[in-house]
Amino acid sequence: MRISLNTMKFVGTIHGEVKAESFDILLSTPIEKGSFVKIHHESYGWVLARITALRRFIKDNDEMLIASARVIGYKSDSGVVSVPKAPFKPEEKVFAADRDLIMDVIGLNRSRHHSIYLGYLEGHNIPVHLDIQKTIGKHICVLAKTGAGKSYTVAVILEELLKAKIPLLIIDPHGEYSSLKYENDDFENMLKFGVKPRSYEKQINEYAANIVVNPEAMKLTLKPEFSFHELVEILPIKLTELQKSILYESLKSLEGRDYTLRDLINVVKSHEDKGKWKVVSALELLRDSGIFEGKPLDAKDLVKEGQATIINLKGSELFIQQLIVAKLAKDLFDALKLGKIPPFFFLIEEAHNFCPERGFGDTLASQIIRNIASEGRKFGFYLCVVSQRPARVDKNVLSQCNTQIILKVTNPNDLKAISQSIEGFTSGMEEEIKQLSVGQALVVGECVEQPIIVNVRARETKHMAITPLKRESKEEVKEEESILEKIKPIFLKETDDEIVEKKPLKEEKRKTLFDRIKYLFLKEEERVQ
């Protein structure tokens, strides 16, 4: 059914030279960069376009406001999004795009069920819900310069995956994802995006190699089981051929037995050749890392439905971090291929430290991460690569990520690395990446029909939370849960069947509402009478 022109918001008319893929608009009303517009084509019907630039000038004593637009496309009867092959008519009327056309052409999910609610579409109050399987099923990367909101965006994704009960394993070099245990208290920002405070503490297990620096985490202990070649690779001391033969013979003598590094060291010590002492020294350095001492964790302990396992590497030397990632990745990949654990999401923060581009040298984890990137999706090993230095991440790993979430990047080398990993990357996309605001992300990949810019939503959990000194009593927790239920109607209602779109509040009304909600969260003694 054709929409009446009287019900649509008129924006302006096509101005000047018209191309099939782009055109200018002589605006009759102000419009923001990034907004979507629609134009009726004589052959294709309604076509979606996006404002990419604005300019204002005086001509013949009249003020001119011109917008440049890039054609996104139209959705045919077969459901395929295509770009018109013929240009629009000169001086064709241009209208603000309606919500349905935007969602159909871009390919946004209309349901929150099994989706990642990432935020609002730039310039519109349209929630962006990305299908989980399309988003993470063929690997994902999150790339940004320092301070652009990378870790914040990753935490938003993790919150959504936790709600969907997807098993998660998070490699956390700086201990920043522990804050998923604590509720956000930025109520004003949450209201803008229709989210409510939430804690995922019951779904999180946190392990650390250094429990002195991370006292709230449990001790991380890995199985000291290695093939000969693995052990030679990870030893911190390079061995001669003679010393390798001593190690090989010692491992063979323990074959088929459960053994510790101490057992292996004792077997090497019993060898007659004096070359054994360098092997012993290397093994003792490995033992002193502490990650192979104690009761080892099984793959089934680390990967469970609805559970997030955080591997907190804060306070550990880089070599130890790389050793942990290499060992974990290999053991979990082997367990997954044997059907011992369910498909899971494996997130690597600071990925340039674990799978660097070849020009920066290999690490212990480089080869296994490359293998996972190329083969893991077949078994349900969903990789997430996160980095503030895209140019230093192995380009073969990046190119295997079919979903890219890119926040602001300005370094030319990093932009070049991103362009090489994205099919159909254009100079226009490069400019958009450089001009993104903090908290904005360009989303590219199979999860959307067309690249889109998203204002990333507020977190439900606390960003970079400081661990509370005092834990609340059960009564206090119940009281807080009760308060949350009281204000729940104010927040966006969660539904599997429809998207509930929040209307902007007037400033005075919004401020009053925020004050009321904040008051509810204050403890009794803090409330002002």
What does this protein look like?
α7 packs antiparallel against α8 (276-288) and α10 runs parallel beside α11 (366-375). The chain has helices at 99-106, 132-136, 150-163, 187-193, 228-234, 241-253, 261-269, 276-288, 299-302, 318-337, 366-375, 395-399, 412-421, 427-435, 474-487, 507-521; strands at 10-15, 22-27, 36-41, 45-59, 62-75, 81-82, 93-96, 115-121, 127-131, 140-143, 168-172, 204-208, 218-219, 308-312, 344-348, 381-387, 403-406, 440-445, 452-456. Mean pLDDT is 86; it is low at 465-472 and 492-506. The protein is an alpha/beta fold and 529 residues long. β5 (62-75) and β6 (81-82) form a beta hairpin. The protein has 4 domains: 5-106, Elongation Factor Tu (Ef-tu), domain 3; 115-220 and 297-456, Rossmann fold, CATH 3.40.50; 228-288, no CATH class; 474-526, no CATH class. It is built from 16 helices and 19 strands. The protein starts with 9 loop residues before the first strand and ends in an 8-residue tail after the last helix. A 12-stranded mixed sheet has the order 9-8-19-18-17-10-16-15-11-14-12-13. Strands 1-2-5-4-3-7 form a 6-stranded antiparallel barrel.
